[in-house]
Amino acid sequence: MAKGTIRYWAAAKAAAGTGEEPYDAATLAEAIGAAALKEGRNGDFRRVVERSSFLVDGDPVGTRPHASVRLPEGGVVEVLPPFAGG
């Protein structure tokens, strides 16, 4: 297990009810799964996260399965929902 920070942006921040929170997880899937179970989170959080892109310490996760993305100790996960506009 690694400890680090999840940062939420735009709609993800609104759905999470916070701009950032700690993680204690080995993989991205574990971290996001635990975040979804936090008190007060509803289906909006899951819907936003399912459409979001992720960076781990600045590196894009892309299409890799989240269960295969190992999280580093002291790392930062960025949750980036789709952005509108141009």
TrEMBL record:
<dbReference type="InterPro" id="IPR016155">
    <property type="entry name" value="Mopterin_synth/thiamin_S_b"/>
</dbReference>
<dbReference type="InterPro" id="IPR003749">
    <property type="entry name" value="ThiS/MoaD-like"/>
</dbReference>
<dbReference type="InterPro" id="IPR012675">
    <property type="entry name" value="Beta-grasp_dom_sf"/>
</dbReference>
<dbReference type="Pfam" id="PF02597">
    <property type="entry name" value="ThiS"/>
</dbReference>
<protein>
    <submittedName>
        <fullName>MoaD/ThiS family protein</fullName>
    </submittedName>
</protein>
